[in-house]
Hints:
Elements: H1 4-17, E1 37-46, E2 49-59, E3 64-75, E4 81-91, E5 93-94, E6 101-113, E7 117-118, E8 123-139, E9 141-144, E10 147-166, E11 169-188, E12 192-201, E13 209-218
Antiparallel strand pairs: 1-2, 1-13, 2-3, 3-4, 4-6, 5-6, 6-8, 7-8, 8-10, 9-10, 10-11, 11-12, 12-13
Amino acid sequence: xRPHYFGIAALALVAGIANTTTAQxxxxxxxxxxxxxxxxxxxxxxDGAKAYGGGLAFGSSNSLFGSADIIRTQFDDxxxxxxxxxxxxxxxxxxxxxxxxxxxxLVGFAYQSGPDFDTGFGTVSGSVRAxxxxxxxxxxxxxSPTFDFVPFGGASYEMDxxxxxxxxxxxxxxxxxxxxxxxxxxxxxxxxxxxPAVSIPTESGxxxxxxxxxxxxxxxxxx
Length: 223
């Protein structure tokens, strides 16, 4: 069975696959038509751990997009942390002629090293690999010339592989679950996004992950 801390870390890691640095309207941010590049940062909190990170994304308004993020996870009751990377790609599809509603199929991969810590009887170390397949839909609701409200919802099927070594004994475990994500982007001047969101695992007994992130579009507006 996977160690408890690796399970917490994996939840933060796969939630990071859907980080705001990746998204556009379908995931609650300004579209890449506001700028073909995006830089962002954010943090996530779940029961027993918190994670923070940042990254870059590139894409077109109604075409392919992708991103890379670095994620650091800290734990409440052990003196250890974990570092991960998250990669995501998707394709944005306009669902109406005004292009205010957008659907995106998504695919993601994440890898995490740690946590490693001494139990007094031996060192526990491990890693997590996570794959995600899913989709998201969102819409832009103009509230003023300089402010848009962009709610979104989505779901992904997560496939995690845990590898661990405890006291020189190696083991591994696979774990799959579905995660529902809900949130809303507060978009200012078409380029700055502040986004609260929640990721909810459907597995019984799992705790949700709450997050807040910030993103800024720049560069030549994508066509």
